[in-house]
Amino acid sequence: MAEPAPVHDDAPSLDPRAIERNYRRERARRRARVERRSAVKRSNVRFWVTLFVLAFATAFVILAAWHEVQTLFGV
After folding, report:
1. DSSP state string for 10-74
2. How would residue 4 be classed by pLDDT, with cut points 50, 70 and 90?
3. CA-derived radius of gyration, the chain
4. What is each CA distance from 57 to 2, 4, 29, 46, 64, in whole angstroms?
5. pTM of the model
6. How many Å apart are CA 60 and CA 54, to the nearest integer?
7. How far apart are CA 41 and CA 15, in angstroms?
8. Contact predicate 19/13, CB 8 Å
9. Which residues, 6+ apart, have CB-to-CB distance to 12 below 8 Å?
10. Which residues contact 69 (CB under 8 A, 6 or more apart)?
11. What is the pLDDT of residues 14-31, one digit of tens each?
12. CA-CA distance, 50 to 56, in Å (whole number)?
């Protein structure tokens, strides 16, 4: 025969230490969420800056090579 489900008391604890512990946990979760959000923003900025630098370097190398080819063949 099945046993009855255990009764859980969902009422909040009245222990002041438990309340303070819950506040600290929630503040830590909020701080972690904000830090993750700012880390994502920083990584997006790093990506675009790196992409711009690589594109600029590539364009510079292509133009330098083009100039050398023109000088070499006298075009």
Report:
1. -SPP--HHHHHHHHHHHHHHHHHHHHHHHHHHHHHHHHHHHHHHHHHHHHHHHHHHHHHHHHHHT
2. confident
3. 31
4. 72, 71, 42, 16, 10
5. 0.59
6. 10
7. 40
8. yes
9. 19
10. 75
11. 788 998 999 999 999 999
12. 10
Query: C-alpha 15: how far from its chain's center?
Result: 37
Q: Which pair of tokens denotes residue 7?
A: 């009764």
**Residue appearing with tokens 């309340």:** 19
Tell me the torsion sign for CA atoms 47, 52, 56, 61: positive
CA separation for the pair 75, 67 (Å, rounded): 10
Q: What is the DSSP letter of 3?
A: P
The tokens for 19 are 């309340």
Please report the sign of the dihedral spanned by the C-alpha atoms of residue 16, residue 18, residue 23, residue 28. Answer: positive
